[in-house]
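Forwarding the complex inputs:
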Amino acid sequence: MKKQFVLKSFIADNLVAVIFLAITIASIPLSGLSPVHIIDDLMTRIGRNAFLVFSLILPIMAGMGINFGMVLGAMAGQIGLIFAMDWGIGGMQGLGFAALLGLPVSILLGWIAGSILNHARGREMVTSYILGFFFNGIYQFVVLYLFGSVIPLHNRAIALSRGFGVRNTLNLEPVRQVLDNAWLVKIAGVRLPMLSYAIIVVLCVFIVWFKKTKLGQDMRAVGQNQHVSNAAGIPVEKTRILSIVISTVLACFGQIIFLQNMGNMNTYNAHDQTGFFAAAAILVGGASLTKASIPNVFAGVLLLHLMYIVVPMAGQNLFGSANIGEYFRQFIGYGVIALSLVIHAWRSRREAEKARALLRSEGEEA
Amino acid sequence: MKGEQKHGGTKTLALRAAIGVAYIGLLALFLVTGRTHTVLIDNKADPAGSWQAIRGMTVSVNGGEAVEYMKGDRDKVSVKGQKMRVRVEFFDGRDTEEYSLKIPFIEDTLLLSVPKLAEGLDNPMEPFNLYADNKARTDAEEGERFGQEP
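Prediction (whole assembly, two chains):
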């Protein structure tokens, strides 16, 4: 039977994306930016950010909501980059070296986070958010005190003048945009970093393949009902840990891709907003806390970054201050996350009420 | 049954060992091939008079853009890997020369004296400690400021 399109339910199902799209479309003419500039910037941002957002899909599939603990992976990637810059490794090799060094760190951190989240069932998102803050403290301690004192730092250009600790801003010149420039195609003034896109396509293929594997099916089953999955012999805890480990590893690689595009790294803050931006992007793309897909990632990155490009300029033109646009950007980002959480809570309650009503009516009939 | 289990365990162990070796091998490969060195291209005369600066030339490193150097100039280039090809074109009509040099893996920064290289003198490229040089200069300037002997 063909499903009938109902506008009201479509808007209700995609409320976040619809509100977002309306704000962004209204801002485009106000920004005064040329279409070529907007598209060029957008294409660069897709190559830079999509990988990070993909890291959120598997935990959502496993029923753990948005993994704000992905900042742990971002920290691992940054540690890899610090070592690569310390030993002066440039080009693709520098990125590969950082990724290889970040890999075991992100696996370890992902395993710790996953184990902790297993003890906080039903509150995974807030726990992972707080875990991010906790590990941020450890990261600051390692980078600020242990690098150069316990962990040898031989490149004095990256060390603080006191002799230990890493400088606030790390110049990533040896690896700056190597991925983007390795295979750069220009079409009508729009730059397309094809190698970054190729990596994203490989990741998409991996996710599609992974969903069909035994582990992927287990993750989906665990996400739908843990008790039933447990009764069916699926190792629920291990499956949940694995989803967080894979997410953290992907976040590690994603942060390296992100930073190579930026060309420098804010050593102590670069990872702070990673989880927030990725979460906002996937939610804007139409994902919910229980369901996320590859199109959600692309739609989200496209919409969120379209807003990031046009809104500051629209704010500048409307109010004479780009800061208004910046505040608006932050407000919208957090607002989208809050709205998604509220909608999720509202839907869960509505479904629970429906189920109760159904049960009651069945009881009355009996 | 027990033998099969043992065989499976050995296989897993061998696989894990192979992954470990591949991991370390890849790290080493990236480290060696991606190691970047800063080379200071120098066109200054020896203070003791052993060699003179070249009046004018262009220097190209590893097929990169040729950069012009006049007497007393110094510039820096980044070199990836431990081999370096230097092409020098002189402004005084001398033949263009090409040199192949090896960079020690351990050194971050080196000073390449092109006049020394052109004259065929020993050790045209020497390790250069940027921070020691700066510190000595800062100490000397500080001493001068406070009327002390540097």
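The beta strands of chain B are 36-42, 56-61, 67-70, 74-80, 83-90, 97-102, 109-113, 125-127.
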